[in-house]
Amino acid sequence: MLTRREFSKLLAIIWPAVLPPGSARLVPPPDISEEQSANQKCDLLIKGGTVIDPGQHLHTPMDVAVKDGKILEVSQGFPEDRALQVVSAKDKVVTPGLIDVHVHCFDGVGLVGVNADRYCLGRGVTTAVDAGSAGYPAIAGFRKYVINTSTTRIRAMVDIGALGVLVGGASGAMRNLDWVNPELTAKAARENKPDVVAIKVRLAEDVEAGAQDLECLKRAVEAAEASGLPLMVHILGPYSPLPDLLKMMRKGDIFTHCFNGRNHGVIDASGKILPEVLEARHRGVLFDTAQGTFNLSFDVAEKCLEQNFLPETISTDLSSRAINGPVFDMPTMVSKFMALGLSIDKAIEMATVNPARMFNYGVELGTLKPGNEADISIFELRDGKFEFFDSNKQKRLGRQMLVNTATVRHGQVFVNMI
Fold it and tell me: Does the model's pTM come out above 0.85?
């Protein structure tokens, strides 16, 4: 990557800031004549990094060439003089841009939203999915004021609860079923495609649906079917037993917060995975981590991993309550699951190619395959002793930590300023 001196020189030519203070900064390519441009093989060359791309079974030193915002070539020994802009990734890890399928980024509206360009793009996440911050009354505003103004690629879920999480997610709003309208939710989802990629419902005994969780889930499934979208189901200590909820979920629906330690979880009292959980996976239900503030138990995660029950995706449930711990950011979450025993290749798979398959983003994401979007993340892989915490303040030690140093979004380079 860049030396300190090279980085200082770049700061002097940074374009006017389009990102919030403290986030990644755009590094413009050098000026070049039309004749020179015609002779260039690629616009950007990421040189000499270790490419880890599970979608293509790659883990080897390679160069990544980018042209017109797309991946041109992944190969060894690509000539530097054939590139307009060269970024050294020597001693770094280069991956497809990370995809976080569970964030809350309705920045400036509600109580928990964060700025995606600062906390996602600035940490190596090129695509973020807002997990139901807005219900049907506000989703058009989210699209106008967040999706359309962000450099991060943002997609959204429409919450079946009309208020979404605009009042913090603890309002119990769905206990009034007048606020749970599948027809209006489906209509809003259809009208805001392709930016809307799913429906969201929250099921918990102490907040949101409460004892009406089965009815709220039924209505969410109706909205998902009417809009032709998958459903993400937040299950966190629900009123109803987990098997009753799982049997209502369809192939492609997502159980988020799957490793929480609350009542009605995925394991029984002896630590064995419930047969209904295994049956749901067999039917095609997907499982997502989404730690957030309250939603990850190391004990539950370790018992599941010991039984070879891995989540499809690692995600953050990033919000203003989690950016200073225990989540921090997506690279920390990937590193956390490495500390639990996953290989770096498997962990990156759960943050790239697997989430790319979860939703229809409208573009090809998740791998560095030629022709795909040039969304790329560059990391230091630091060795040492690192402490990681779950939502119960339980600690695990890891020996490696991924730290983002730069991100490429649609062929543009952003240097991490954190």
Answer: yes
